[in-house]
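Q: How do we represent a protein-ligand complex in a form that can be generated token by token?
A: Start from the inputs.
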Amino acid sequence: MLLAVDCGNTNTVFSLWDGTSFLGMWRTATDWKRTADQYYVWLDTLMKLQGIDAEISDMIISSTVPRVVFNLRVLSDRYFNTRPFVVGKSDCLLPVDVRVDEGTTVGPDRLVNTVAGFDKHGGDLIIVDFGTATTFDVVDVDGAYVGGVIAPGVNLSLEALHQAAAALPHVDISKPQRVVGTNTVACMQSGVFWGYVGLVREICDRIKAERGTAMKIISTGGLAPLFQQSADLFDAFEEDLTMHGLQIIHNYNKEVGAQE
Ligand SMILES: Nc1ncnc2c1ncn2[C@@H]1O[C@H](COP(=O)(O)OP(=O)(O)O)[C@@H](O)[C@H]1O
Ligand SMILES: CC(C)(COP(=O)(O)O)[C@@H](O)C(=O)NCCC(=O)O
Ligand SMILES: [K+]
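Then emit the structure tokens for the protein with PAZ bound:
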């Protein structure tokens, strides 16, 4: 069975792929200090709670936090006796091209999203991922990653307001009923929520104009549904896009490896 790990700057998600479907998904806060032994006890407990008796034989990792990879490699080696594929490393092949400036290290999450998006929807895509940062990944007609946009994340923007201004509280994002807020919290939520709707719309319109072609817009990440229900921004929402991509990339490397 395959253990797929998607490590973002805020959360790390583990999932088990049995060859047909994902058996479970478990989330922990990203912390590079967490050891292999800690990961194993945590994961083993959660799998047992769900009655899953898994023989993990393979592992694939995508991490936007380089420091985390060391302990995840130890987990793979010590507990599953396997060498993991790490997206972005030269020995982990991708089934799509990456066409960016020489010397650029693209976030592995963006490459994985590209592979998954192309598999599910074909080419000419904009994938919007609402993570710690909000990323826009542009997928060419042939599935290649050809660049994109990085904007501050929704929660990061709210947190920045709180950190920088003495009188602004910590606020959670939600859709305000009105644009004009009549209290501080409503004013902040309006600024970030409607500001974000504008940001997403403007960036997608400009990408389409720059490329001179129609493009499908796919959203993913925890906060995507909040924006989807409020404004007609996306053509489709994909809940587990990154996990889907990890499983495809793992399969691709196994197949290519077997041919060599
Ligand atoms: N369903 C949700 N509702 C509200 N906030 C969420 C939800 N899912 C994630 N978040 C928040 O969105 C931000 C990005 O989370 P996540 O997508 O896990 O980021 P990353 O992949 O960068 O680790 C975090 O601040 C997280 O707490
Ligand atoms: C832009 C990101 C910080 C997004 O990461 P996330 O919000 O998922 O934690 C990550 O993809 C990254 O570190 N990228 C490197 C630069 C690039 O993609 O061009
Ligand atoms: K992410």
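Residues 8, 109, 129, 131 surround potassium ion (ligand 3) (CB under 6 Å). The chain has two domains: 2-86, 108-244.
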